[in-house]
Design brief:
- With about 425 residues, the chain is α/β, with parallel strands linked by helices.
- The protein folds into three domains: about 1-65, no CATH class; about 75-220 and about 385-415, Medium-chain alcohol dehydrogenases, catalytic domain (Quinone Oxidoreductase, Chain A, domain 1), CATH 3.90.180.10; about 225-360, 3-Layer(aba) Sandwich (Rossmann fold).
- Helix content is about 30%, strand content about 25%.
- The protein has 14 helices and 20 strands.
- It has helices spanning about 30-45, 50-65, 110-115, 165-170, 215-220, 225-235, 250-265, 280-285, 295-300, 320-325, 345-350, 365-375, 390-400, 410-415; strands at about 1-5, 15, 45-50, 70-75, 85-90, 95-105, 130-140, 150-155, 155-160, 180, 200-205, 210, 245-250, 265-270, 290, 305-310, 325-335, 355-360, 385, 405-410.
- The strands form five sheets. Strands 6, 7, 8, 11, 12, 19 and 20 form a seven-stranded mixed sheet that branches. A six-stranded parallel sheet has the order 15-14-13-16-17-18. Strands 1-2-3 form a three-stranded mixed sheet, covered by helices on one side.
- The protein is globular.
- Mean pLDDT is about 85; it is low at about 1-60.
- Bound molecules: zinc ion (2 copies).
- One zinc ion binds near residues 110, 130 and 156.
- The site of one zinc ion has 7 residues, from helix 4.
């Protein structure tokens, strides 16, 4: 047994090679591989797994043959996050499955995080993309909601247990057995792959009906960024006309949060550290107020003014000034994921019975409701449409927040099946 040292991995992790497993051609090799990686990062134990290279080789082979239908996509293969073409396969259309040709796929910030394995749970190769819009090409014998030719969408989830309390109440996003659209083991043990690919096969429960008048390209980002902002606005009662809502950060999530809140009739204040975004916020997105969150005077001026704040920022940032900006009973809802734990003085919550909460995407029923709401109110994402061979440059630009506000890949016209 020998130890592999890989500088690209967290130095706390150790990976050992067991030569007896080198020729292991078990069809679930990639599941074994993924489980090992997950255990390593959560428990920091030394685990015996097959050679990474050998496993990868067999994964590449099995990826093409593990399912009957050939598929083609763009995959990240290591922590560089660089994406390159990958031939793989998708399952045959099951009784409840919808097969669809992908037309457009948004590039979410999570795609970048997963591609670079920043959360330590990525299995390579991995095809990202969970803002997927397409047209149905085949339906299973028991599919009720869709027919060939329908426009459809798939967001962040492609599976859940369908029997727990969360699933029974349309909160599949909190099901402990939820299956993400990419990068995790699917119910059959193979890995899920996302929308940077020529087609998808998805259980109809996780497929959304695409509203007639909602654009396919600029509507695609709603499947993650749209529902992620719509759901907390509804759940925390910030969807009433006249409600005073703050939006922190003006990126992919933030700009949609402003549009959603405005459509609900809220008075919207944008908080940003970038003064250059003031004009975009007020003139472009029709926000009512703009506050430079680096300016203590402006922050002081906002004290006690907001019923709720949607915080979309993932970089580390102070929370206390945002709590000050809330009215009594106000709610601060976190959507971003700062790596550093928050520092909160209990006093700032107690004086005013304030709430700090988090929220994650939305259930399927609510996602459909959100799409219909967006179509009715003309809400779409501001986008830059790109061909798939621009994706690595797009990822670099996304990392620098150099996009207004979402890249969307023109999949149908740029990913060609070999
Ligand atoms: Zn996303
Ligand atoms: Zn469940």
């Amino acid at each position: 047994m020998r130890r592999l040292t890989r500088s690209s991995l967290d130095p706390r992790w150790s990976i050992y090679i067991d030569p007896q497993t080198l020729n292991n051609s078990h069809p679930l090799n990639n599941l074994v591989f993924s489980s090992a990686i997950i255990l390593i990062c959560h428990q920091q134990h030394k685990l015996i797994i097959s050679s990474i290279n050998t496993t990868r080789t067999s994964m590449t082979t099995s990826l093409e043959s593990e399912h009957p239908i050939k598929a083609y996509g763009y995959a990240a293969r290591d922590t560089s996050g660089e994406l390159s073409p990958l031939t793989f396969s998708r399952r045959a259309t099951g009784d409840k499955d919808v097969r669809f040709k992908v037309l457009y796929c948004g590039i979410c910030h999570s795609d970048l995080v997963f591609a670079k394995n920043e959360w330590g749970i990525t299995n390579y190769p991995m095809i990202p993309g969970h803002e997927i819009v397409g047209v149905v090409t085949e339906v299973g014998s028991k599919v009720e909601k869709f027919k060939v030719g329908d426009k459809v969408g798939v967001g962040c989830l492609v599976g859940s247990c369908k029997s727990c309390q969360n699933c029974a109440t349309d909160y599949e996003q909190y099901c402990p057995k939820q299956v993400f659209t990419y990068g995790v083991p699917d119910v059959d043990g193979t890995q899920t792959h996302g929308g940077y690919s020529d087609h998808m096969v998805t259980d109809e429960h996780f497929v959304l009906r695409w509203p007639e008048n909602l654009p396919l390209d600029s509507g695609a980002p709603l499947l993650c960024a749209g529902i992620t902002t719509y759901s907390p606005l509804k759940y925390f009662g910030l969807d009433k006309p006249g409600t005073k809502v703050g939006v922190v950060g003006l990126g992919g999530l933030g700009h949609i949060a402003v549009k959603m809140a405005k459509a609900f009739g809220a008075e919207v204040t944008v908080f940003s550290t970038s003064v250059a975004k003031k004009q975009e916020a007020i003139e472009g997105l029709k926000a009512d107020h703009f506050i430079n969150s680096k300016d203590p005077e402006q922050m002081q001026g906002a004290m006690g003014t907001l019923d709720g704040i949607i915080d979309t920022v993932s970089g580390d940032h102070p929370i206390a000034p945002l709590l000050n900006a809330l009215t009594p009973h106000g709610k601060l809802v976190l959507l971003g994921i700062p790596m550093k734990p928050l520092e909160i003085a209990a006093f700032s919550l107690i004086m005013g019975r304030k709430t700090i909460a988090g929220s994650n995407i939305g259930g399927l029923k609510e996602t459909q409701e959100m799409l219909d709401f967006a179509a009715k109110h003309g809400i779409t994402s501001d986008i830059e449409v790109i061909p798939v061979d621009y994706v690595n440059t797009a990822m670099e630009r996304l990392a620098k927040a150099d996009v207004r506000y979402r890249f969307v890949i023109d999949v149908a016209n740029s990913i060609k099946t070999e």
